[in-house]
Each structure stands twice: as C-alpha cells, then as structure tokens.
Design a protein that fits this description.
The chain has 246 residues and is α+β, with helices and mostly antiparallel strands. Helices cover 17% and strands 31% of the residues. The protein has 5 helices and 12 strands. β2 (67-77) and β3 form a beta hairpin. The longest helix is centred in the middle third of the chain and has 18 residues, at 117-134. It is globular, with a radius of gyration of 17 Å.
Amino acid sequence: MPIVTLAPSYLDPSYLADAVHNQGYGVLSPAGLSTLIAHPLADLEALRAGWDDLPPDNFLKDGGRYRRRRHASFIVEADAVTQVAHRAHYQPLEYNALHGGMLRSFEPITPATIAQPVWHDLLHRIADTCSSVKGARPWFVEAHQFRIDTRHGIGRPTPEGAHRDGVDFVAILFAGRHHISGGESRIFEAEGRHGQRFTLSEPWTLLLLDDQKVIHESTPIQPTADGGHRDTLVLTYRSEGFLEPH
C-alpha cells in the first residue's frame, strides 16, 4: 500500500518574511531556497556527505540509539558569518523537559562541511530573513546536523514532543529521507488552538519558524526497508546571545 503524505504549501521566497511574521512559519521549495541563497541546488548537494559521518548522540534520556548529530555555533552580523569556539549545547528545562538543564557536548560539524561556499550564504540569507521580521541585529546561530535512523526500530526526531527551542527563529533544512514512513511536521500556535501538519519530502526544502509564536514537533519514523533514515540541518537564531546556564 502506498504511503500517503500531505505536502506543505510552498511560498515565493519574496514572501517568506511576511509569512513568518503573520502566521509564525513559512516553507520554501528547493527551488525557492536556491533563489533565496543564490546558489544552485548542486551546491547544497555538496553538503550531503556530512550526514554519512555523524557520531551517535549519547545524551538521549530515553535510552534510544536512533539519533546521530554534530553541532557548531556562529555569529552572523551584517555580511559576516563567524564561527565561535566549540561549545556545549544548552536548553533550559522550560523549553526541553526531557533534555533541558544540562550541558550537552557534541562532536563539531566538520571543517569540510563548513568550508563549502554555500554554508556562509545559507546562514547569512536566513539571518537576513530573520532581520526582515524583527529588525537588523547580530544573530547567534547554533547549527545541528541530525540523522534519525531506524536500525534499532522506531526513530524519534523530537523525543521531547511538541516544543519551543527558546530562541527567536528555527530553520529546519530538510536534507532527505530514505525507506521510512512517518516524520510528519506539526506546527501549533503557542497562544491558540490552530495547527498545521505536512511532511517534508523534497531534499533542500526549508521550514522557517518563529519560535516565539509557534510550537513544533516531528512525528516518529518507522522503517519500510533496511537503512531507513531522515536527515535535517537545524539552525536556531537568537538575538540575545547563546543560551547558557544561569
């Protein structure tokens, strides 16, 4: 039986900031993202090898072995994208009831990935969109490269459930899915009852969220054949510095 999924509604890139401002999120097709960052999709494909070399996430409190990841931090100000010294990832318990309140030190995103010319423009152009919504300012960006796999059964992209990240914006760059079902994106108003759901299925689709207006999650994935997995790059943008323990 074929797997039926609901596709997102894609925006013209020129309307992305307005959509995020008005409804809390917007989705760009691969072609739309290519236009936004002024790079052909082949340049994004050059990042793909990085997902085949992700170490396990050893901090999963549910005991799972389904998540692999790398992490890096940057400051984007005007045209400059500056990587900062490698640092631990932190979220308060109020935003992540499962994994909040502790410092989690992940292996860094590889220099080969960050050296790709598209990396700078990807972070920079999304920052420009964030500034279009909330005004120009330095953006403190954390990059998380994820692979959720099904070698040991069900994989959970968001084991903490529907959540906010405690930042201003969350950009989810969908890099691909193979031999899985599930993985539906769900977005809910933080102060309301309305929600949206759809499944990202085209590599290099971009979902941009206003983290102060909406709550988001991705449903668990199940294998349909050996090697089932889902790859994403999550970029969080915060204007008041990186989240740190108080």
